[in-house]
Amino acid sequence: MSAGYHFVSTYRVAGDPVRVWDVLSDVAGWARWWPELERVEIVAGSAGAAQVGSVHRHTIRTPLGYRLTYEIEITALDRMRSVDAAVRGDLAGRGRAAVAASEGDEATIWFAWLVETTKPWMRRTSPLARPAFTWAHHRLMSGFGQGFAAASGARLVSVVHSEIRPGEPGFWVMPEV
Prior knowledge:
This protein is of the alpha+beta class and 177 residues long. Helices cover 24% and strands 45% of the residues.
């Protein structure tokens, strides 16, 4: 993975855990509330809650102005707990989303992405542009968190973004649920 990225975005929200899960697992509906997600196409499966084998094609416009189109195929699903996905297209690799209930009505949601860019211009410029690509990802995922909280009727308590760089311990390891 020459232009590899391992990002983790963690959101703490106060809201109904069932509603939080329902909005998170409705991948086809993300474009209704995530402003940067321009289009979602159902390639396999149906609208509504994600199912193993369902495939959604996303086109996203980054804060830097370029677009990425990629497919997310649900490879594992543990209802109310986690979703694993294979990613292919302008990004290739895998992702995981998980929800953990906290005390009261709070939940922690995190997304982990272990992907590489496949666009030739991104691969060529990655050594210099990596900080900008990382910034763009964090901005996109902040927008995701804000839209997600509003759509699920939750209050966004906190957002934390992190990156594990190639060569650092844990780069190849997806966080456990």
